[in-house]
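Reviewers of the previous submission asked for a worked example of the structure-prediction workflow described in the proposal, so we include one complete record here. The input consisted solely of the amino acid sequence. No template or homolog information was supplied to the procedure at any stage.
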Amino acid sequence: MSSHTICLQDAMESAHHTPQSAKVKSVNHFDAVELAEEFNVDTKYVDLVIKFIGASDLARVHVIGSMNPCFRATLDDKVSYTSSVKQNTLFPVWDETWIVKTVPSTATLSVVVREVETGALIDNDVGVFQTSVNPGTKEVEIVGKRLGRSKGTFWLNIESSPSAHNSRSLLYLFDGPIHYSRHDSPTMGVLTNLRDTRLYSTWKIYIKGIPEFFGDTVQRWNHDYKAAQAIFKGPTSIAVRSGIMAGHRMLYARTVLNGFGVITSADDVFKLLRGGLRRSSGDGNSAFENRIKPAVYTYVIAEEDETFRFSETGATFFVDFASKHALHSNCAESVVYGGEFHPRPEGGWENFSDYTDDSGVRWELVIDNNSGTYSPNPDLLAKVAQVLELNFTGINVVALTQDDPELKKSIDACREYALTKRGVKTTELEPHATDGEETLSDRVLALKKT
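From that input alone, the workflow returned the following C-alpha cells.
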C-alpha cells in the first residue's frame, strides 16, 4: 500500500464517521428551493459540517511538470468554498472544514477540482462531481467535463443536523471556520532592493455574518468622485476597468506560494499584521519582523464572496492604478463596505514603547470608511465593527468615521511611530516604486501586448 493511500486513510479515520458510507456517482444539480416552491413542497432545512478530506489518483492535466491541485465547492450555486493549494501531488490531503447553516436538505454539493499552473491567469479543470448533502463519509468519482472519463476519487464527510431556524429569508449561511489566504504580487520575485515583503502582499479572509448584519444593503460607486468616474463612466472606462481587473486576477491568483490558515481568535488576526521580511541589510529592522507593524491598510468587504480583502495602503502594486479599493474589489460597481484600518495598542501609538512586549498590551483595530471610490455610509460603520468582532473572537474594534479628528490623530501617531521607531521610510507610506522596478501595472501592460 502506497504512502499516499495511507495518508488518505489516516485523514478519513480522523473524520466524523456515520453508519452511512458509500461510493456515489454524480447527481444532477437543481435549485432545490425553487423546485420546492413550484410544487408546494415543505422544504426541510439543515445545518451542514462538510469536511473535505482529500483525493486520490488525480489525472494529470499535463504530461510533464508538477501537479498542484485545489478545488472549489458550491451548494446550489448559492455559496462557495475555495480550498488551499497542495503542491506537486496526485494524492492531496486537504482536511478542510466548511460549515453552512440553513441549507435545503435536498441541496446539491458541486465540486470542481483544479490544477494551479504557476504564471497562468486561469486554472486548469481536472474534473467535477456532484453529490447530495445526505450525511455520511463519501467516496466520489471525479469525472472530466467533456468526455466524462474518470479523473480520480474524492473523499469527504458530511454531518447534518436540523436547522434551528427554517426561515427562507436567510439561506446558505456561511458559518466558518474563518479561513484566509495571503497572496503576493507576481512582480515580487524579480524585485531588487526590496525592504518589506508586506508591501507586495494582500490578504483575503472569508467572513460570516454579512447577510445578518447588512441584508441586501451595498455601497455603490461614488458618482461624484473623479477617479471612480474614470473607472465606471465614459467611453474610456472599459479600458481602465480591463486593466484593473487584470491586475486583480494577477494579485489574487491562487498559487503554491500563497499562505493559508484559519483564524480562531484576535491573536491570529494580529499575527497577520506583524512586520514582514526585509531583504536589505544593515538597517537594524530584523528585530521587528515578529512585532505588530504600525501601518495603515486599505480594505473592502466584497459583495461577490463576502470576503474581507486588504493590504497596506502603501503597497507597491497600487502604483498607476486609479483606485486602491477598485483593485481589491475587482472593479465591482458595489461592495458591502470599504475604507481603511490600522492596529494600535490600547492608549495609542503615542503612548507605546518597543520595550513593552506585544503580548503585554491589549491591541485594538481602528476601522474607518475612508474610500473615495465607494464613499460608504458612515451610519453603517458600527455594523462593520460588529461583523469583525463576530468573526475575530476577542478583538476590540474602534470605529471612527473619516471626518472624525480622533481618526487623523490615531493615524498620524501610527505613521509617526513607524517612521521614527521602526525605520520605515516616508515613501513606504504611499504607493511607490523604485527606479527600474517592474510594477503590477507594468505586468498588465506587457500582458496586453502579447
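The CA atoms of residues 134 and 404 lie 52 Å apart. We consider this example representative of the routine output the project will generate in years two and three.
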